[in-house]
Specification:
- The protein is α+β, with helices and mostly antiparallel strands.
- The chain has ten helices and eight strands.
- It folds into three domains: 12-51; 59-173, no CATH class; 180-209, no CATH class.
- A hairpin with a 4-residue loop joins strand 3 (30-36) and strand 4 (41-45).
- It is globular, with a radius of gyration of 22 Å.
- The termini are far apart.
C-alpha cells in the first residue's frame, strides 16, 4: 500500500508556510500551496519542501542576486561584456523591486530558471555571447520567463528553451499586443507584412479587412 501523505498544512519551511494541498505533479508528488513571508503565494512539491528546496517563493533568490551584482566580475569575468550586462539587467528586472522595469517583469511573475540565473556563462552555453549592441536578450514566448529548457526546474515545469538574442524590432513584434495576419497560410505581424509588401499601412489594413491580399505572399 502507498504510504499515507503527511499533512504539511501550517508547517514552515524557510520563508514558506504551507496553506493547503494543491494536487499532484506529473511525478505524482503531492503539491502544496504556500504563503511566503514576502506576501506572495507559490506551489511546491512536499518532497522538495522537506529537503529544504525551495526556501521562499523566489524572493530570496532575488535578494541574493541583487547583493552579488557588484561582485560578478571576480566570479566569471563577464561583467564588462555585453553578455554580462544583459544577464545582470535581466536579474534586476526580474528580482529587484527597485528596478524601473520590475513592474513589467518580476512583479508579473517573469523569472529566470535556476540554470540561467546561476551564471552568465550558462547563458553563453545556451545561445552564445551577445553579438553586438543591436541585439538584446529576448524571450521567445513573452508570456513565459527566461528558461533554458534543460535544468531540473525547467523539466519539472515542462518549460522549453525561451531565450534568444533579438533586435529591438523583433522584440517589439513579439509583444502581447502585436497584431498578426495570416496570408496564404503564412502568419506574420501586420507591421512586418507592411514592411515586406511596401503597401501603405492604411491601405494594407483596409485590403486585409476585405480579404484582398491573398496574392501577395
Amino acid at each position: 500500500m502507498p504510504r499515507p501523505t503527511i499533512d504539511l498544512t501550517g508547517k514552515r519551511f524557510g520563508k514558506l508556510i504551507v496553506l493547503q494541498r494543491a494536487g499532484l505533479d506529473k511525478g505524482l508528488n503531492v503539491l502544496w500551496k504556500c504563503q511566503c513571508d514576502c506576501g506572495k503565494t507559490t506551489i511546491a512539491a512536499g518532497t522538495k519542501l522537506k529537503s529544504g528546496v525551495p526556501k521562499s517563493c523566489g524572493c530570496l533568490i532575488g535578494e541574493r542576486a541583487v547583493k552579488i551584482l557588484a561582485k560578478l566580475n571576480t566570479v566569471h569575468g563577464l561583467s564588462d561584456t555585453l553578455t554580462g550586462w544583459s544577464w545582470m539587467t535581466m536579474l534586476q528586472r526580474c528580482y529587484n523591486p527597485k528596478a524601473k522595469a520590475f513592474e513589467n517583469y518580476g512583479a508579473k511573475g517573469i523569472m529566470a530558471c535556476e540554470f540561467i540565473r546561476a551564471s552568465p556563462l550558462n547563458l553563453v552555453l545556451l545561445i552564445g555571447e551577445r553579438p553586438n549592441r543591436t541585439l538584446t536578450l529576448d524571450r521567445i514566448n513573452n508570456k513565459m520567463g527566461y528558461h533554458c529548457g534543460q535544468c531540473g526546474e525547467c523539466l519539472q515545469h515542462d518549460w522549453s528553451l525561451n531565450v534568444r538574442w533579438a533586435t529591438r524590432k523583433e522584440q517589439a513584434r513579439n509583444r502581447s499586443n502585436t497584431v498578426y495576419a495570416t496570408i496564404n497560410g503564412i502568419r506574420k505581424p501586420v507591421s512586418e507584412w507592411i514592411e515586406l509588401t511596401g503597401i501603405p499601412a492604411t491601405s494594407f489594413r483596409r485590403r486585409l479587412a476585405k480579404g484582398e491580399l491573398h496574392g501577395i505572399a
